Structures are given as C-alpha cells and as structure tokens.
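hi support,

uploading two proteins for the ticket. first:
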Amino acid sequence: MTQVALITGGSSGIGRATALAFARQGAHVVLAARSADRGEAVVREIEAEGGSAIFIPTDVSNADQVRALISQTVERFGRLDCALNNAASVEEPFLKTADFTEEQFDRSLALNLKSVWLCMQQEIRQLLAQDPPGGAIVNTSSVNGLGGVAQGSLYAMAKAGILALTKSTAIEYARQGIRVNALVAGGFRTPMLEGVMERVSGGNAEARAAIEKRFTEMVPLGRIGRPEEAAEAALWLCSDAASYVTGHSMIVDGGWTSPYR
C-alpha cells in the first residue's frame, strides 16, 4: 500500500525537504502551507521527479482549515499514514518577556503551538478511524525549546510545549498503534533562519556574516545544517525502522546543545 504523508509548512525549508524525501520513497505527499505560490512550486518539483503530490493552502492555526485539510487528504488518497507537523513562524519582534503585548503572545502561541495541537487532533482522529488504524506523527520542535532564549521567550515556550504535547500524546495513543515523536531541530539553512539573521543584523551584510560565523563556531560540526539532514531524521521516525520509537525527542543540531543536555 502506498503511504500517504502530510507535511505542514511544506512549502520551504525542512518541510519542503521532507516532502521531496517522502515522494522519492514513493509516498503520496500532501503539502499544507499559507503560501500557495511556494507550495505549488514544491508540487511541481515533486512531479518533475515522477512523484505524487498535492498542495492544500492552509493556515494551521485555524481549526476549520485544519479540518478541511485532513478531509481533503482522505478524499483524495483514502487514508493518512504519517504526518510532519512542521509549520512555524517567528513573526514576533525580539523583545524581553515583559515587553510583549498580549496580542503578540496569543499570535505566537497560535502559530507555533496551538497549530500543532489542532493538526494532531484531526490527524489522530483520522488515524484511529481508518482501516487499518494507526500511523506516525512527527512534530517539529527546536533546540530553543530545550532552554531559555533571551528576547525569544514566546517562541521558546511554544517549542518547549511541543515536546510536552508530543510525549503526552505518545503515551495516550501507543496501544492504538499511533507513534508520536518530536524532531528537535538545530540551525538549518532555511528561509526562516535566513530571515532571523537578516533581522538581527538589521540588513547589514558585515554584521550578518559575523552572526553566521559566531553561530557556526558554536556547532561542533562547524556548519549550519542542510534541510535534507533534518528531513532524513523525520523520514526515519515515520518509518517501520522506528517501530519501537515513540515519545522520543530526536535532537538534530550538529552537536550544538551537547554540552547542556
């Protein structure tokens, strides 16, 4: 049976790389993101390689749109086998905790934590209802969720929340054939990371180069990761090779956080 894989945030970065990786293994891939242009571009990439994919424009912080995403996935392919809940955003400014507004708090949590719960809720209901039941879910967290982040407390809080949500859900549904794990991502060469470095540097090329140099010096492997390297970890967590792995937080960061774990 051909697998059906759902990737949120599938239009760029780790999501795009994972979508391509699933397609190369023969899966039907469903991409969900807010950017239709980029999402459709990834579908064309997959189809150019002979793969099967569709794009469904979705704001995963909206419950109705998430319900529609799962419904359309099943209407098209008949079932769901695995999901990477990868969509995230760093829209909020870099501020100290007391300086965020309530609106910024609500927006950040909606985009980065509530969205994962909304997706898991609908994915789990589908995985339980189908025949045969079961499947695998991977939630993208971040090394920022392993500790504190100055001027990034809202994002760090959301990513830490994903880890607790993942572990709790893994315990609840293990006996029903659903495995749930977290991909704890370090620094990867993605549009999100590029955008953060651009914002921190204020658009100054020299400052940006210095930021990237300092970052890479903190990573034992001495480089920023490739999205494909994160994709391989997500792919493995969804595979039968990981059949005895659930409730796990897989840190993929080039060794960056090794001294602090």
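and the second one:
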Amino acid sequence: MPQAAAVEMRGITKRFAGLLANDAVDFDLASGEIHALLGENGAGKSTLMKILYGFYQPDAGEIRLRGTPVRFRSPRDALGRGLGMVFQQFMLVPSLSVTENVLLSLPRDGVRLHHRAAARRVGGLASRYGLAVDPTARVWQLSVGEQQRVEVLKLLARGAEILILDEPTSVLTPQEVRDLFATLRGLAGEGRAIVIITHKLSEVIAVADRVTVLRDGRNAGTVSAGDTTPRALARMMVGRETFDQARRDAIAPGSVMLEVEALRALGDRGVPALRGVSLSVRAGEILGVAGVAGNGQRELGEAVAGLRRATGGAVRIDGADCTHASARAVRERGVGHVPEDRLGTGVAPSLSVADNLLLTGYRAPQFGRGPLLDRRAMLSHARGLIAEFGIRTAGPEAPVRTLSGGNLQRLILARELATRPRLILAFHPTRGLDVGGTEAVHRLLLDRRRAGAAILLISEDLDEILLLSDRIAVLHGGELAGTVETGTVTMEALGLMMAGVRPADAGGGSGP
C-alpha cells in the first residue's frame, strides 16, 4: 500500500524562450506506489521529471523529498539522494560495452575494473529483470530497443529508491511485460516510489496505483487507476475520445510490391542476424513484423531499405531486383522509409525543419534554380507540411534539434508520406508518441493502405501490430517463426511465437 509522500512538487513553473512548458504544476509521489504520468507530446511531462531529476531548474515552485525542501542543481545531486531516471533520448557511450555503461552510472569504489566479474553481475541483473542484452556488447552494436534496456539496467543497478521509467515496456513481449510489472510491484512493495511515463493506456490500468495527466503544461487531474478507463484518460489528455476510431477496412490486396526471399545478413557484430527470412507484402496490405528487439527486425528493415548489405537471398521491389541497391536507388523505386533511429538516421539535427523536410526531395525541379535551391519554395513546402501533419515547432527555420521526440517523428512521417510512395517501410512509427499522435499516424498509414500502398510495419507494440496489420510475421533468432493472419491469432499466441514457439503450438493459424 502507498505510504508517506516521497516527492511533493508544488507550483512548478518552467519557461523556455517564451514557451511555457510547466504552468504551476502540482505533483505528488508516494513511497510504495507506482504513479503513471500521461500527456500529449509537448504537454510538459519530460520537463517536469527533468526538473525533479535536477536536469532543469524551475523558474518557480518548490520540491520536497520525504518532507524536506530540496533543490537539485544537477542529476548528480538527485542520484546522491536516491533518485534515478531513464531519459527518452538515451545517455549512453556508444564505444563502451553494456557493462561499462552500467558501471559508469555507479558510485566509484576504486580505479580497477574487474570486467569479467562485472559482466557476470550485469548479466545476472539483466536476467533477473527479463531485460535480455549481452553484457559484453558495445552499445553502438545494439538496436534502439536494446539500448533502452541498458538504460533501465543502469537505473536498477543504481538501487535508486525513487525510480522514473520512460516507456520501459516498449521492447518486451506480453509475457515479459507481466514479469516486469510483477517486479515493479515487488519494488513498490519494498517501499520504493516509481513513476512510469507511457503512451500505452492499458498498461496504466494494469500496473499503476494513480495517474496524473498533464495537458498544455498544466495538471489536468490525478485519478486512481482503479477508478478510471483508457477512454476517460484519453479524454483528459486530448479533450476527446480517440479509441476505436482507426479502422482497417477489408481490402482485396493487389500485386506483390515487396518480396524478400531467403534473405541473409550479418549484424553489426559480424554474426548472422538474418537466417533465410522470406516474406512478401502486396499493394493495399500491411504486413506487421513482430519480435523482441535484437531478433533481426532492424537488420531486415535496413536490408530492404538499402542500408545493409545482404549476404544471401533476394529483395525484389515491384518485381525489380533491389538486393544490392543503394538507399537512393530504393527510394527511386517509389519507397518511403520511416527509420527506427530518429536522430541517428532520420534527421540532420543541425539543419532546420525546412531543410529536413526536403532531405529526400531536394532534387525535384520545383525546389531548384540551376545548382541552387529555391528557399522561398522550400519554406512554403515546409509550412504546408507543418500544418498538415501538426508538427509543433517555432517555424520552418527552427533547428530540428529543438523538436520533441514526438514532433521529430511527425516531421519524418510528413517527409516520407508527402511523396505518396507505393511501398512504405515504417519502422516503429509511433514510438514515443502520445495517444493523439499515435492515432494520427495510424490514420495516415491506413489511408495510404486504402490508396493502394504496400506497408512493411516493424513495431514492438503488439497492440499496434494487431490493430494495423493484415498479416503478421514473427521473427525469432533471425529466423521467421511464422506468419499468421491477424484475425486468427491472439496477443498471447504472438508473445509465445516471439519467444520461439511455433505457430501451431502457440495457438496461431498459419498465413500465406
């Protein structure tokens, strides 16, 4: 049961260059409770938690930690008082191993590192919490989902009494989610205070004791999770009910747009990551690819997009052999690509919003005057996409690095869908988006499907996979564990397939 207040935030206000991010926000976190924090992108959730963590200083307001006023001047101060946070944008050193990154987060107890013993401890911790990752792997070799697990491991290794977790379940199977929730309930039962930031409202109901919703920088209310519903929470967040509105109509699929045959590829560590994967996507169809992070999804997406060399098999786009085609050649076949890593491969952070919206289309004649780009046409193009896709930005000339994660995703989707591609490679298209943003992305993808586009959807959100996909292919260990029709499989069966169980044994029917 929740105990005395671990954290009290009163009247927290924070401005950034005229933007009011938090407007006199009150927030309480009790010892022994799991408290969910919800809100649209830009609602002020991350800012509020970064203030609590000492990353930002409030312009006004007070923070009390177990009844004592505190003012953390840095995250180091917060860590020293037993508070840990996992950021949405990871804080990892790519050249170091998983173990070394975890050790960097711990208080120093000497200068010598016993790597083997430390790796065993980190591996044991990962196993205990169901966060499978190789302790000896370099971070740059990991998928985005695996990097998120390292951040969670850092938090758990620190032994913090106040834990802030941002989307901690996005890389787990349903079975692993249940295990993690059991772990969190055990930690709360020991008196720890836990904040979970998530866009999965069903998870809020499943694990949280209380829910606080932020809207436009203000506290829209705090409710007991047992006394609310996903619909009610969505209404608090965006002012309307958003569920059950995205509909996948029955459409007769057309010709095969993407065919992957016995595809093989190596991972970043030089070991096989794809082991003879075969699948196809037809016009007017969404094929969802499910699997726990690190089972070949990233390598599959990159091989199809022309970003990773295939070592065997074939990739054909609209009948043309694109097995060894460049990324540019793949795009010229009418392919749109929404990448997994927004900042690494999706945008150029130092360039403006307008520049990023034209990164893949600057060769079009309407944007060029000889060797020079027509800046006026670029800005007009950018303003149109900003309005159409609801990108929250100070303007087309603003540096793209100033956008939130959700608005970065909107920008990438705007750029990739504006050309009306015939094949869309959508890899984790709603990761980090709020309920309203997620609904908008789902509508966009379903609209493109209705218009005849073929869509390869790679996602670790099984709710999303089941909602959007006509068929689902499950990867395990770099191999195709099975392909099933969406209407013939349950989430439980999908979770078992993701763990390596065959479709027939998992309870899912085979698809073509």
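thanks. also noticed: The chain has a mean pLDDT of 86.
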